[in-house]
Amino acid sequence: MAYIEVPEDQPGILGLLAFRPKMAKLLNELVEALLRTDEGLSAWERELIATYVSSQNGCYFCETVHGSVVTALLGGNESLVDEVKSDYTEADISEKLRALLAIAGSVQESGLAVTPEQIEAAHILGATDLEIHDTVLIAAAFCMFNRYVNGLRTVQPQDAELYRQVGIRVAREGYIQAEHCFSPE
Fold first, then answer.
1. pTM for the complete prediction?
2. Any idea which architecture 13-177 has in CATH?
């Protein structure tokens, strides 16, 4: 049960957005801008960064929703998401993406934990300034989203199939169109 009265049929951040509709518009636009573009990083890479940071923050709702979107964008490859959450250094991803996930992990700990060596390594592996910028911004934003969801103890269903369906819907429609993605289509 959430710490405040939110709609119980809207789990995770969705109940909080229903509680504060004025914030919902802004936060949905932010997540749409951060994750629904292929400018620099692909949409699945952006979603994977959000998934990884959310898993490190222990936000089941966010890690599972965004992991399901990654899976949908990659045509059903759930194992990649599991690999990254378990140990991204051994996952079947590019060296550049590994370097960006290292930066995201440092942001998750503290913005001050990002080192010049991490930035240099990412550059050497082909990351652009835009990709590094967006990695840091996605990681920072998801620390906020995760703390929002967990800080108010929202309902976080454990039904894997429900999240798979949400992932498919969000991958197809985006965050603004699929705003009520846990309700029937």
1. 0.94
2. Up-down Bundle (1.20)
